[in-house]
Amino acid sequence: RRLPPALVGMAEEDPPNEYIENDVLQEALALAAAGSHAEAEAKLLGLRPDGRAGRSKAARLCLAVCLWRHYGEDRLDDSKALLEDILLEDPDTSAAVANLRQIRLAIKYRDFRKGFATLQAGQLSEAEVLLRGVSLEDPCDDVIRFNVANGIGMCLLSLKKKRSNVGTWFSVLPEAVQFFDVALEANPQSPEVLHNQGLALQAIGKHAEALEQFDAALRVREAMRPALVAKMSSLHHLKRLRELGELATRLLETDTACFEAWYERGAARLQSLMRKNSEKGNDFSNHAEYGGALADLERAFQEGAGRMAERQLLGMQRTLITAYSKQAELVLFKHSDPASALQFCDTALEVQPAFDRPENSELARAVYFTKAVICTIRGQPDRGIEFLHWMLEHSGGSPSVREAIGQISLLNKDYAYAVSMLEDLLAPGKVDATRVNLLYDYAVALVMLGELERARQVLRRLLRDVDDGHSRAREALAAVDAVQNPPAPATGPDFVADSFDGERPGYTWSAKGPHGEGYYRDFENQLRAMGWSEDLIQTLFTVGKPRVGEEVPDINVRYPYHNPFASLEATGGEASTEEESPYSAPGEIEVELEQLLFPGPYPPRVDPTIREQYLADDTFSGLFFMTKDEFQQLPKWKMLNLKKGLRLF
Fold it and tell me: Same domain, yes or no, for 74 and 122?
């Protein structure tokens, strides 16, 4: 092994003596023992190789110690080289072993300090390389192991990057969690490392585990602000809104400038109110609390100005937009104040004008839809449609925007335009519980256009696939069926025995009138009870094309005609007005699971709404852990949840 240039003169071919007893070495050893390492080094370097002088193990050992003690970190590598040469000659030299261990530990301290300084300077990639160069194997103490592991974990957490391994990309965050585990083995009570590990777990979506680490950090240091803020974020993701609100309030008691606490408390209030309103059908009974949520969010926006990261700012803007939008709905529907509602919508749009970002498109549509509704209420339906057309242009023809235009068109009683916008409602995968009322409105629009058969199909599909208990849809379907299939008219008086006076026959007319007028009157009253106008009722009863030989252009369904099902009364049969099903009964065919998984397409003759029923019995029981009969006894919501988990919904 080559020695540093300053020590080349000591390297001769002559074998070194085991001990050297000359005066120079004795003086150097005495100086080194007294702490005068520079003077000892000078004497040792002053030795000239005259015979065996200056080349013994003792001289090299003394020189290595002097270089270390005098020059510190600058000459650690030279000292290490001298000691390793000694151990190559004689591995049992205990003094060299002990000193080499200390020097190696000192080199690790030097490299660690250099890596940590690079980390503090923000050079994350360089710091990671330097810290990974520090081996955590012996010789290594808990101080180095703790700081190096924590430092590497902080680099990985800050970079949050992905790396490639044989073409496969993977996240480095789980590795950061493992390095924080190593650091915690060296110091289990470090609140900083507990907090860092919680952040890493939070970044990979393990919010429950992250919450445990934040709580552990707060048990060590109760007022640790970063851990409190991070804990609020995990509570937010876990939807533990009550705890989130309490924690945010407690933090604001000591730090009113904490914009994170203002934001989290406002967001918790807003989400809690939105959840309650959704459960109660948006009755806005707790409308006063919306003002508190909005005030918290505005205060957060004010306190965080200039201090928030871009990602934080975007999230806060989205929540604030939602709050303004909900406040607009509140003053519109609870207080009937469209002017104030419009002002809130404009304020929401001013928060983040860049609605062209994909993550903001849904928020923009909600605000613009509310503005469209307000314009319609204020007697400006054309202006409302303009807003919605803007949305349609900026969303690439989004189906949800088409539905919104259809809804506004329904409010404007532009039924033909509404039907053209809502045709996508019946596309595969679109018929679900969230659109039940819109489906009903679509059927009403078809009725208003006189397209009773299409309206009947929509209502039947609503009841069959979405909500079989929808009372208004059932009533509407009964009315449409009655119009299309009116009762048979009476053919004459009902004879009553012993009820004549000999001069004229005695009879009583049918209770519903000689031509079934009472039936129609009942249906009309039923429609009026449903809130249908007289114009709509007249449209219902005057539809279709002229009969052959009739000159009138319209047919009044009240006009008596022959009941094609009257002959069934004699045989006791029943008339079936059901359409022929395009699907096979589940018992007729069996289909493999792979052919039934969402999003399709599905095999012909398979009803997509009950795909699970086409599975073989053993396949079904293996998936659902019950028989098909037991499955049918479950509540509908539980059936849907089970089907969603297996991609059968």
Answer: no
Q: Which of 163, 171, 136 is nearest to 151 (CA)?
A: 136
pLDDT at residue 227 tops 80: yes
Mean pLDDT score, 642-647: 76
pLDDT band at 235 (very low <50, low <70, confident <90, very high): very high
In three state form, how does the secondary structure of 305-373 look?
CCCCCHHHHHHHHHHHHHHHHHHHHHHHHCCCCHHHHHHHHHHHHHHCCCCCCHHHHHHHHHHHHHHHH
Average pLDDT over residues 18-22: 43
List of residues 6+ apart from 642 with CB closer than 8 A: 624, 631, 634
| Residues 621, 628: Cα–Cα separation, whole Å | 7
Asked if residue 77 and residue 29 are part of one domain, the reply reads yes
> Confidence class of residue 213 from pLDDT cuts 50, 70 and 90?
very high
In a domain, 374, yes or no: no
Same domain, 75 and 46: yes
**Would you give the DSSP letter of residue 136?**
-
Say how far apart CA 301 and CA 307 lie, in whole Å: 10
8 Å CB contact between 93 and 87: yes
275: CB partners within 8 A, 6+ apart: none
Which residue, 156, 188, 220, sits at the end of a domain? 188
Confidence of residue 219 (pLDDT cuts 50, 70, 90): very high
Express each pLDDT in 134-190 by its tens digit: 887 777 778 888 888 888 888 888 876 655 444 445 577 888 888 888 888 888 999
- Asked if the model's pLDDT at residue 609 lies above 80, the reply is no
CA angle 202, 211, 163 (to 5 degrees): 20
User: Residue 135 is part of a domain; what is its CATH number?
Assistant: 1.25.40
Whether 216 is covered by a domain: the verdict is no
Give the model confidence (pLDDT) of 511-537 as tens digits: 444 444 555 666 676 667 666 777 766
How many Å apart are CA 227 and CA 213, to the nearest integer? 9
Q: Which domain holds residue 633?
A: 593-645
CA distances from residue 46 to 36, 86, 264, 463, 520 in whole angstroms, order as listed:
16, 20, 72, 105, 127
Whether residue 78 is predicted with pLDDT greater than 70 in this model: the reply is yes
Q: Specify the long-range contacts of residues 445-451, CB closer than 8 Å, at least 24 apart.
A: 445/410, 445/415, 445/418, 445/419, 446/415, 446/419, 447/476, 447/480, 447/536, 447/539, 447/540, 448/413, 448/415, 448/536, 448/539, 449/415, 449/416, 449/419, 450/539, 450/543, 451/419
Please check the confidence at residue 268 and state whether its pLDDT lies above 80: yes
What does the buried/exposed string (b/e) look like for 141-163 if buried means 16 or more CB atoms within 10 Å of the residue's CB? eeebbbbbbbbbbbbbbbeeeee
Terminal C-alpha separation, the chain = 73
